[in-house]
Each structure stands twice: as structure tokens, then as C-alpha cells.
């Protein structure tokens, strides 16, 4: 653990010079060779700090005074930013946020670019050519990282809000504070879809009037393209009076309702419409509140177009879509003429995907399989000679799949990742198998946060 003695050297007059920004958006400084990870601090700034916690890797702190500020510093747009744990980068200009995320992705891929360099040297040696004396920057061996962007505000089409009553009887509806179980009550959130944002004041009016107001767990707000939804997590059965109050609220605000208890999620029988979002002109996916969807509609559209542009689907092109979800990529590929097999681990999503495909008379083959089991993966890959595989796994990545892919069997791989570190690990496996990166992009799925996603297209080396 970092020495507590180092922390005791800090006084009210100690100034820290911020040297860099960490992957999670904190300023990095050193004092007596000890790293300090400082919230709300940017490179080039000189700050004084309040120590929050000492950890094995360094000391966590928060900036509380500035002698010098970065030219990239901006005034946060959210009144709750200092306390709420939802955003980490509102104090950094949006273009600088994107450059930081792009640089972090490049850093994650440095071992990958080194492997590319080693393959170049190996191929030269096999041809009895002399390797170059200087290999140049490691990143020069990888394609330029493109950046997919969306509006910086009002992009988030779903959010889970906690509900809590304080000891003094104050109602809090909002997000968890950073690294804390405490809730920050919010009355507006600038990253939320404006239609969802507009519902918050009415919830503060409705909930205090409920009989079961203290047994609500959380609220999940969801925005489809045309309609809104709300999932109510209740810890005890709702009374008839409360159900009628919620239904009256839903009718007034044109919001479809779902209920969640410890066993299941159920749709309110009074709902008169469903939720859906468009993935391609003329094609929309219906979904339920508990289903996974990309929260940023604009970035999702860009990712769909990037997949189509990379693969250029043609009639009879055989595409295996793994971790397919509702059919976010499967339906657009099939609509372009590809013969798509979609595989997902959840039966509920497979059923929803099948229904979506049937709506547009798309002949997609759907399977439910555990893509973290060797037998299941090998059976799927050996089923036929695939022209392309599309991967869109959760944060844990798709290591097993990547280790079993080979250019002789699958000509192209498109990988959409929500975790740059696991993507870098899996990309190493694909390079080892004989692929190379054709194109690469950082998708800014969550502006104002440190989170970044990745789009990558692999082809045979």
C-alpha cells in the first residue's frame, strides 16, 4: 500500500501538477514518487487536493483548489455533477474527451501493434531480408483510429434511477454517488433523452402519494423511437390504489408500464403500445425494458452502418452473428441479402429476435447457445464455411471464439466491443490466428463519461 507517511506530507499549501489523465478520467500526479489519482483535475493544472482514500496502487483524492487551470476545462452542465457518479468528464471539453478516449484505446493496443511489428520482422526474416534498423512508433503498424460521435447531451435513451427516502423524509430519485452506495437525488439530467428528462418532476409528485412509496427499489426509464416506457421495481406487492395511480400517470404522460418483482418482469395489461428503435430505413426492433439495447441511438446507427460498410453483404453471403441480442446487426445484414445465422445466450432475446425477423419476412436462423463453452463454439464455427463473423460480446469479451477463428474458415471478422481491455486481449488472439486489422474506430457511446467502445474489422493477414 502507498505509504501513509507520504499522505501526511500534504498540507493546505501543497500543490500538485497534473501530468496525465487516467483511463477513468482522473488526473494523475506524483508526490514523493507516490501516484495520486485526482478527481476533477486535468493535465497542465496545478491543484490542491482533499484525500479520499489510500489504496495499494496510490492515493485517491479530489481537487479542491486551482492555481492554474487547463484551457480544455469547461463548466459542467449538470447541477449534480460534483456528487453524482453517472458522469466523470463534464469538466472537459467534448473534443478533448474524444481525443482522450482515442489515446486510451491506442495505449491499450500498444502490445497488439508490437505483435504486428514482430510479424512484419518475422515475414522479412522468412524471406531472408534484413529487418529495418528502426521499427518506428508501435502504433504506426495499426490502422488510424477513427472516431464515431453523437450529440454530447440528451443522448441516453435508458437509465436506472434509485428511489430512497432520507431520515428527514426527503425523497431522492437519482444515481449512485461515485464509489458509494449513497444516492444523489436529481431533478434533471442533461445526458438523458429530453423526453425522459421531462418525466422526472412528475415522478417527484406521484411517488409521495403512493401507499407503497417506501418499498420501491428502482425505476428504469426507457425511450423507444416513438414511445416511452417505465419499469417499476417493487419490493412488496403494489396495492390496487397504487396500480391505478401509476396507470393514470402513464396515461397522462403517454408512458407504457412494466412491473418487476423478485420473480419476473410483467407488462401492464393497460399498455396500448410497444417499444422499438430503428436500425435501418424501414426496419425497427421491438424490445422489452429488461432487454439489452445500446443506450445511444445515434452511435448505434453509426455502428450498424460501419458493419454494413465493412462487410458489404451480398446475396448468399454467409454471416454468423454471435452475441446477436435482438438482431441489432442480424436484421440489417439479412435485409441487405446476407444469409445470417444469429446466436444468443438468452432464450428471451432469441425469441424476441425471431419475432423481429418475422415482422420483415427475413429468413434468419436463430440459435440459443453458450458462447463461453468450447463445444458450442466449435460446433457453430464448423457448421459451414463462413464468409464473416460478427461479434458483439459483453464486457467479458469473446476470447474463446477468437481463439477458434481462422482465416481459412472465416474470411472476415467484425468485432464491436464495450471494453477496450478485453478487446485488446481478443485482438491478440485473432492476430495469432492469422488476421490483421483492416479498420478501427473508437465509438463515443457515452459522452461526458470515461467509457469508450470499439469497432474493428479484421481480414486475413
Please write out the topology.
Elements: H1 4-8, E1 16-17, E2 20-21, E3 27-31, E4 34-39, E5 46-55, E6 58-68, H2 94-108, H3 110-126, E7 145-148, E8 158-165, E9 171-176, E10 183-185, H4 194-197, H5 200-206, E11 216-223, E12 228-234, H6 240-253, E13 255-260, E14 265-267, E15 275-280, E16 283-287, H7 297-311, E17 318-322, H8 330-335, E18 339-344, H9 347-359, E19 365-368, H10 374-381, E20 386-391, H11 399-404, E21 410-417, H12 420-433, E22 435-443, E23 453-460
Parallel strand pairs: 4-6, 7-22, 12-13, 17-18, 17-20, 18-19, 20-21
Antiparallel strand pairs: 1-5, 2-3, 3-4, 5-6, 8-9, 8-11, 9-10, 11-12, 13-14, 15-16, 21-23, 22-23
Helix pairs in contact: 3-12
Q: What this model shows, in words?
A:
The protein has helices spanning 4-8, 94-108, 110-126, 194-197, 200-206, 240-253, 297-311, 330-335, 347-359, 374-381, 399-404, 420-433; strands at 16-17, 20-21, 27-31, 34-39, 46-55, 58-68, 145-148, 158-165, 171-176, 183-185, 216-223, 228-234, 255-260, 265-267, 275-280, 283-287, 318-322, 339-344, 365-368, 386-391, 410-417, 435-443, 453-460. β2 (20-21) and β3 form a beta hairpin. The longest helix is centred in the N-terminal third of the chain and has 17 residues, at 110-126. α3 (110-126) packs parallel to α12. 38% of the residues are buried. It starts with a helix and ends with a strand. It has 12 helices and 23 strands. With 461 residues, the chain is of the alpha/beta class. Helices cover 27% and strands 30% of the residues. The radius of gyration is 25 Å and the shape is flat. This is 23S rRNA (Uracil1939-C5)-methyltransferase.
